[in-house]
Design goal:
about 350 residues; alpha+beta; four-stranded mixed β-sheet; about 35% helix; ATP-binding; cytoplasm; phosphoribosylformylglycinamidine cyclo-ligase activity
């Protein structure tokens, strides 16, 4: 389970010396206690509880597979953590971490099984760590995976007391002959967009630069956003894994593309063979207001915005043309904004954005 990197037991003299060096053993133990309830709510039946004090154990059930393949992914949340620290709001950033990891797993059709986390901090504040892990647990619940193990490390001198960073790794499983990807994509397939909840956890170096250069106030109400800018920018990443798995079960999904750093076109091209192009019609959606606010405040060109942000599209499913209506109905029933984004055509493995964006109603 997530625990402090410091020893859990040592002599008073050793603890005093370690504390003098900036590491608080007692705070680490309290943080572990505060995390336990968060960890428990993510536990899947395959988890072997209390079998090891150092590693998380997961009994892998392959009875339903003829050719089980494990998938793995690792990621962080980038400089969005700096915004969380600036606003002293730490209960959502963990969900961003889960989204970045599990939605990279599901693109190949893999069901996320478990996630491990790593949190490094300048000073271990148990309540802050518990908030972060609580967000991770919420994300794991949404994805249907368990938070199996992790580590919390105190790095005085390397990080300022208020600073922290987090990363995670996930493991999933998929049937060998059901792996999704470019080899399944054909000309004439349809592109279905799954709407994002904002920038997710990508592009925040540019976000922070815009805020600094334009002198934006994170706490001020922005009419176009319906709330304070900082609150909108901390909106956690929408997690698609469970929705995509249901989509795979009920429709003909060829490939999925997780729209993260690099924007829509670059990520969509990773799901295309070199004989097929994707034609994305900007007119099918209006990007969220936050992207317009950022572009205007930073005088950022459309090309730069589209090369940095998801622009309102968090995931794209490439589906058989006759599956579009079923896919859209399923996603909308599950509360995910979805629309047909475009089509595929014979080409060279490129994604092309055409037209102009629609207007928000």
């Amino acid at each position: 389970m997530s625990s402090s990197a410091t020893p859990s037991s040592s002599s008073p003299a050793a603890e005093s010396a370690y504390a003098a060096a900036g590491v608080d053993v007692a705070a680490g133990e309290r943080a572990v206690d505060l995390m336990r309830a968060h960890l428990a709510r993510t536990r899947r039946p395959e988890v072997l509880a209390e079998e090891s004090g150092f590693a998380g154990l997961f009994r892998l059930d392959t009875s339903g597979y003829s050719d089980p393949v494990l998938a793995t992914s690792t990621d962080g949340v980038g400089t969005k953590v700096m915004l969380a620290q600036q606003l002293d709001r730490h209960d959502t950033i963990g969900q961003d971490l889960v989204g970045m990891v599990v939605d990279d797993l599901v693109v190949c059709g893999a069901e996320p099984l478990y996630l491990t986390d790593y949190i490094a901090c300048g000073s271990l504040v148990p309540e802050r760590i518990a908030d972060i892990v609580g967000g991770i647990a919420t994300g794991c619940e949404q994805a249907g995976c368990t938070l199996l193990a992790g580590e919390t490390a105190e790095h005085p001198g390397a990080l300022e007391p208020h600073e922290y960073d987090l990363a995670g790794s996930g493991t999933g499983i998929v049937e060998g002959d059901a792996i999704l990807g470019p080899r399944r994509v054909h000309a004439g397939d349809a592109l279905v967009a799954l709407g994002s909840s904002g920038p997710h956890a990508n592009g925040y170096s540019l976000v922070r630069r815009i805020i600094a250069d334009a002198g934006l106030d994170l706490y001020s109400h922005v009419p176009e956003l319906g709330g304070p800018l900082g609150e909108v920018l901390l909106e956690p990443t929408r997690i698609y894994a469970a929705h995509c798995l249901e989509l795979i079960r009920t429709t003909e999904v060829r490939a999925l593309s997780h729209i993260t750093g690099g924007g829509l076109a670059a990520n969509l091209e990773r799901a295309l063979p070199d004989t097929v192009d994707a034609i994305v019609d900007r007119g099918t959606w209006a990007p969220d207001s936050v992207f317009e606010v950022l572009a205007e405040a930073g005088s950022v060109t459309r090309a730069d915005m589209e090369a940095t942000f998801n622009m309102g599209v968090g995931m794209v499913a490439v589906v058989a043309e006759d599956s579009v209506n079923t896919a859209l109905a399923l996603l909308q029933d599950r509360g995910i904004p979805a629309w047909q984004l475009g089509t595929t055509t014979a080409g060279e493995g490129r994604a092309r954005l055409v037209g102009t964006h629609g207007t928000r109603s």
